[in-house]
Design brief:
Layout: E1 4-10, H1 17-29, E2 36-42, H2 43-46, H3 53-70, E3 77-81, H4 87-96, H5 101-106, H6 108-116, H7 123-137, E4 143-144, H8 151-168, E5 176-177, H9 207-215, H10 239-245, H11 248-260, H12 265-290, H13 294-323
Parallel strand pairs: 1-2, 2-3, 4-5
Bound molecules: adenosine monophosphate (AMP).
Adenosine monophosphate binds at residues 9-10, 18-19, 22-23, 146-147, 149-150, 182-184, 191-194.
Length: 328
């Protein structure tokens, strides 16, 4: 079936390996003939935790370089900045009228943000999933490739679309999620993130840097000495990533060696770092080529913004009509 694919990432800095595996690698996969792909950088979402306007401006351009280096092709995907389409925040306002507040306060990503930024619980954090629903419903996406952490947010968008359609008549497409979503653990075993936890692996890191980062990865805490037998299922940050990046034969050897106590955690981590570095090499080569091509990236954003706006404007026009808003 032909799909309309939509996804985005906040412009909070360079991508980490969790974004790469959990999100961007899938974005690339969907660029097949017949699919319409829209991928954006969520600069408006970034404002909820804004620290520096200059950084935001710069991160937006750098993230598009990451997108393209990872395989997104401006000829096959519409690549744009969320802020290029003012109809998105407008749609978010309309949708907010249909969204009970209580659900928003129970969303796990909101609770996580409150924990991380207890002194900055702004209204934008609370309404974040409604803006995200506008991102998704505006282009009438049929499929939203995201990491596992975003499931409740996409569910909320689905409910909002259903509620709106029930009240005002068929307007929105109810989007689906991918069948297999993943959660890449960070070095501390929690979800890899761009946060203060400092648990992420930068996708631009050299193989030595990746190896050094993984040296501090939390493994099976019961395997204390090198030759103690371990249990891969208890390993918090290394074996779960082997599952995502390492070939089956090598992975079985690792499991056997770990359980027998013949494979140390350091050796296991080095194998993982080597596999990650190998996986990232083509990305890093292309990324280096794009490093100085800011003008090209601005053209991509300009063109993508215009194209995305055409699609989203159409939906928002219909929503206005359904809700009785006439613009004089
Ligand atoms: P964010 O970095 O929060 O803007 O997330 C951007 C995209 O990357 C979303 O689709 C997330 O689900 C995905 N993502 C972020 N961190 C991870 C992770 N540790 N594992 C898998 N996917 C992730």
């Amino acid at each position: 079936m032909k799909q309309r694919i939509l996804s985005g990432i906040r412009a909070t800095g360079r991508l980490h390996f969790g974004n790469f595996l959990g999100a961007v690698r899938n974005f690339v996969k969907y660029q097949t003939p017949g699919n319409v792909c829209l991928y954006f950088v969520a600069d408006l979402h970034t404002l909820t935790t804004l620290e520096s306007p200059d950084e935001l401006r710069n991160n937006l351009v750098e993230m598009v370089k990451d997108y393209i280096a990872a395989g997104l092709d401006p000829e096959r995907s519409i690549i744009y900045a969320q802020s290029s389409v003012p109809e998105i925040p407008e749609l978010s306002l309309y949708l907010s009228m249909m969204q009970p507040l209580g659900d928003l306060q129970r969303i796990p990503t909101f609770k996580e943000m409150v924990k991380k930024h207890p002194n900055n619980v702004n209204l934008g954090l609370v309404t974040y999933p409604v803006l995200m629903a506008a991102d998704i419903l505006g282009p009438r996406a049929t499929l939203v490739p995201v990491g596992e952490d975003q499931v409740p947010n996409v569910e909320l968008a689905r409910h909002l679309a259903g509620r709106f359609n029930n009240k005002f008549g068929e307007t929105f497409v109810i989007p689906e999620m991918m069948e297999q979503m993943i959660r890449v653990p960070g070095l501390d075993g929690n979800k890899m993130g761009k946060s203060e936890a400092d648990n992420a692996v930068d996708i631009n890191a050299s193989s030595d840097q990746i190896r050094d980062r993984y040296r501090r990865g939390v493994t099976d805490t019961l395997k204390v000495r090198m030759n103690d037998p371990g249990e891969p299922e208890r390993c918090q940050s290394v074996f779960p990533v082997h599952r995502l990046v390492t070939g089956e034969d090598e992975r079985s050897e690792i499991e056997v060696g770990c359980r027998a106590g013949t494979l140390s955690c350091v050796a296991c981590k080095d194998k993982l770092a080597r596999n990650i570095a190998e996986l990232l090499l083509p990305f890093q080569e292309k990324r280096a080529d794009l490093a100085s091509k800011d003008d090209y990236i601005r053209d991509v954003l300009n063109d993508g913004g215009k194209r995305a706006r055409v699609v989203i404007k159409e939906t928002v026009g219909l929503v206005r009509e359904r809700m009785g808003i006439v613009i004089y």
